[in-house]
Amino acid sequence: MSTSSAGPPPPADGLLSAARRNLRELGHGLSHASHPSTPLLAGAPKLWQRLLPYVVVLALAATFIPVTITVLTSQYGVSGALAGALGVAQAAPLLMLAHRPLQAWWIIFPADVLGALVLLAQPAGRDEVWPWTPPGIVAYLFLLLALGLRETRRTVIAVWAVTGGAGAVLHLIAPDRSSGSALLLTILGAVVLVIGGAVRERGVAQRRLAEQETISEAERAQRTLLEERTRIARELHDVVAHHMSVITVQADSAPYRISGLPKAAEEEFTAIAAAARESLGEMRRLLSVLRSDGTEGDRAPQPGLDRLQQLVEATVRAGLPVDLSLSKELGEVPPAVDLSAYRIVQEALANVVRHAPGARTRVLVATDLDHLVVLVVNGPAAGRSSPLETSGTGHGLVGMRERVRLTGGTLDVGPLPDGGFRVAARIPLPPAAPPPASPPAPPPSEDL
């Protein structure tokens, strides 16, 4: 009986290696800022909001520099020159809080420790606060707040741990001194860091949510565009299929309609009919892919400009006053243009019903040189009628643009100064076929 020997288990991550790894991460967080040196609120929309951090840091520096110097000279008996140097070192870096709070900490924290060591050389007073002075504690809390707002959780934990450790070491150096400020700063610093970190993480969550909404909106717009293109392709299938069917019938019946065709011509017509049938089959297979699952094709004929009057009458019955002006010189319009013009008017009237109920609307369809012009203009909503929809999905405008783009035309949509809306489409028309040339008249006979 054979037994398969398993490989050696992977070495477990011991406590010592885990501690070293965490220390390296904390050291990296203390030495590398987690954000670029951009000012706080740099992306705010208003100027006063972008200037607010600079005003705050200027006020902090202008307040704490003289206060620190005064406290060091009057309460701790430090000489004026040394007090001035310590006051500037401990408070002037507050000017960096708006854009480089971690670098400011690397200046203020050693200056505070140096100030605590300087105070050891002074005789201890009965009500003296040590190792951190009262203005130093307050300034340091502002520094911690800025760190909590800008830096990662790992960095602020490292700053808090180093601050608490420095207070503990100073207490061991001079246990006879009253070191309550070290414990006070540790507790208050933890509270301030938690508040700043919570505000920062909330802002990060809001930015990520806004990014996701932007991505979702872009995906929704792309999906709408694809749906509209698919719907247009399904509708144009009938138009193209009609012409292909005509080609097939003509090619099949040509040998019977035209007598005396050579054998090569009959074979050519047979090949044309076979190619047309194959194309129809490919179109049907493509349409089955474009059609959604479980949906049946529309068996009704596609509408055109000849049904605009019915569309307008149905819209009037729905309570929307519409004036239709249909040029009598339209002539024969290509099926794709005919369908696109009808759909543009249909969607424009539907938008008026949804967004401006009761507004008087004018519909104009005419020819302008070699273009078909479709114009739908409506005024503001009548009376106190509230719109049925305050914000649309944008499907209608996307569909209009796609139809116009498909036919090589242009679309101009937008609001009017009086509160109405305008939809104007120019769709190119194929050049009209020249009239057949009449046979030349016979020359007049001359009487001899």
From TrEMBL:
GO terms for cellular component: membrane. The chain crosses the membrane at residues 51-72, 78-97, 104-123, 129-149, 156-174, 180-199. It catalyses: ATP + protein L-histidine = ADP + protein N-phospho-L-histidine. Keywords: ATP-binding, Kinase, Membrane, Nucleotide-binding, Phosphoprotein, Transferase, Transmembrane, Transmembrane helix, Two-component regulatory system. GO terms for molecular function: ATP binding; phosphorelay sensor kinase activity; protein dimerization activity. Gene3D superfamilies: 1.20.5.1930, Histidine kinase-like ATPase, C-terminal domain (3.30.565.10). Residues 228-293 form the Signal transduction histidine kinase subgroup 3 dimerisation and phosphoacceptor domain. Residues 425-448 are annotated as: Disordered. Residues 428-448 have a biased composition (Pro residues). PANTHER family: NITRATE/NITRITE SENSOR PROTEIN NARX-RELATED, NITRATE_NITRITE SENSOR PROTEIN NARQ. This is histidine kinase.
